[in-house]
Here is the input.
Amino acid sequence: MGKKLQAVEVRKLKEQLIEKYGAKCSWPGCNKNFTKNTNKQKLFNLLILDHIDNNPYNNEIYNFQLLCREHNKKKNPSKIISSLRQKNLTLLYIYENTERRAVLTESLRIDSIAMAKHLYGDNEFRKLVRDEVFSHPVEGALYDELIISGIEVARLRKAVLEEKLEGMTSSKGEYYSYEANYGDGLKKYVKFRDPNRLTLKDMQVKYDV
Here is the structure.
């Protein structure tokens, strides 16, 4: 189990996320962008560092996002999150366990349910992309097959997954896409932007060694 972040760590993570993704809210459909705000302290106050899975001890970099105050309150209503933490549960955990969805429906607001579903899909799709790209180190994973598999695995619409994959393969993303013909026509592939990200831990987890 990790530890709760200190204020200086929160500030550092906010700086990293702003540098990588821009000073904007990550809530689906939110158009708030604070890039033009030159007052760093005010900017940090406008954007909240959020644990995507609502687990305050999961401090992996992929588990963080920036939310505006409005959508942070929607995703993390204080009473709901407090109750979940007391039970050692998260929105994502409840949604992943189908027999507990009734509990989710009865106890959470509708926007939190929608966010839990989105988080589930986002988490599963990112796992799928990473595994498929990892499994094809030379040419990379087929772009179209990632989308098709993602619809089934992540339970999200094609347009949503295409938007996610475009973001993941953007200039600031972990991956990049390219087109090539390996004998069966011109197709689009996805590869790691930095092959050195494949650490020993990745290898151990992938191959269970």
